[in-house]
Give the backbone structure.
Amino acid sequence: MTPAKTILHPRITIMESFGVEGESEILKAIFLPLITPSHLVPVVEIARIFAMHGVDVTIITTPANAAIFQSSIDRDSSRGSSIRTHTIKFPQIPGLPEGMESINASTPKDMTSKIVEGMSILELQFRQAFRDMKPDFIVTDMFYVWSVEVAAELDIPRLIYMGGTYFAHCAMDSLERFEPHNKVGSDDESFLLPGLPHEIEMIRSQLPIRFRNPNHQYEYLMKAVKESAKKSYGSVFKSFREFEGVYEEHYKKIMGTKSWNVGPISSWVNQDASDKAGRGHAKEEEEEEKGKEGWLAWLDSKKEDSVLYVCFGSMNNFPSTQLVEIAHALEDSGHDFLWVVRKVDEGEAKGFVEEFEKRVQASNKGYLIWGWAPQLLILEHPAVGAVVTHCGMNTVIESVDAGLPLVTWPLFAEQFFNEKLLVDVLKIGVPIGAKKWREWNGLGDEIVKREDIGKAIALLMSGGEESLEIRKRAKAMSVAAKKAIQVGGSSYNSLKELIEELRSLKLQKVNRKMEEPLA
Ligand code: UDP
């Protein structure tokens, strides 16, 4: 086996092996990400961070999902990290086209259940791969609740990757425990979330469906996730202490479990432009129409902090009426904007957005990216001054890392909770005023009007006292984010402690085995 010292990542100065001395101490880990970009991308990035710090890492996934991140793994491997992908063929499901193995914004609604069916078949193969590879520990997505059993069977720790903020998990726990939403008379009557460190007010229509319909399948799923989190060795979050340390402590208290922070992850692992540009998408999803550099030249021509970056993640589709409102709001705002637009198939909306694109191109006020944008590169560009976001946790942390204030427009999953953290606790976001939670693959029935979008943009971009304060707080949070991953920083130390703890568990196990009497 390769001596530990040679698996250092030579380019990355912060990288070290956290005191690995002999090959018996090299930790072997398996990471199992979910097959949706919003969970896959961060779990792969966390796996890469572990590998950069001397852990021998195997990521298990299916071929089409591997295509999304393989170039990053190849790059890390060529730089000296001990990391690889192990692919398992996605099962053939009648009616599911070959290669459709990921749940994202372009997955047809009627294919989702077929992909889930394929996943449940894969479970047996994943279990077997764990047994065959004999890792020292596993890190699996929160939705693989079964993986805690395999870890117990193999007598190894299972770390659960928790998507979302600590804050969101604490808020959901408050709702489960105290049910304040069942004590109000209507969906739009506000209530406080009891037991949280801050006064947080919400309305029922902003809550995930399971809180309004206790028999919903998500209710069972989320209960199972919580149970498996409690049975796991501990949780891994892509958060950092300075961002939501109070809620980290609260989470540990209510769950009675250990947890570690390894965020912000994206800037920790993607240190040069090629890492950032290639991350999170297969080649064919790259913006093709205008060439890769179009957006960059356009941003280069803009003043510092002047451009709004508008993107709603990897899962969302808006109805055409909403696209029209967004387009008008952006144009009417008078500010420059870079808008990431998913493919619009409907004739009328397609025509409208294409016309809109021509118009804003001619006026040089806006730039549209169709499909997948190189978000990390865009966020760090000096011309970008604020982000309009659906409050997906990845975008939230990436924006915070880049020091950008946010216009918050939550849509689904735990995003309404994330909004509360940004607006009410950290005060680095301005809400658009969204009131209705919707399913990730539904279009919803709430259309946010251009005036409301415009108001939030105007407040944030006005340069007035309030906006300057928000911007100042966002910049300060960015400084803290950057420190967190440096040697001695909070996330750096958290990762170091975790790896040391896992190594000592391994050694204890080896010693126990040596002391066992021979059969
Ligand atoms: N992303 C990107 N380009 C896009 C859309 C998304 O790079 O055009 C990345 C983004 O940087 C983030 C992730 O995809 O890391 C989206 O995760 P988030 O939690 O923000 O939203 P979700 O996709 O889960 O709704």
Residues 37-38, 41, 280, 311, 313-315, 340, 372-373, 375, 392-395, 398 surround uridine-5'-diphosphate (CB under 6 Å).
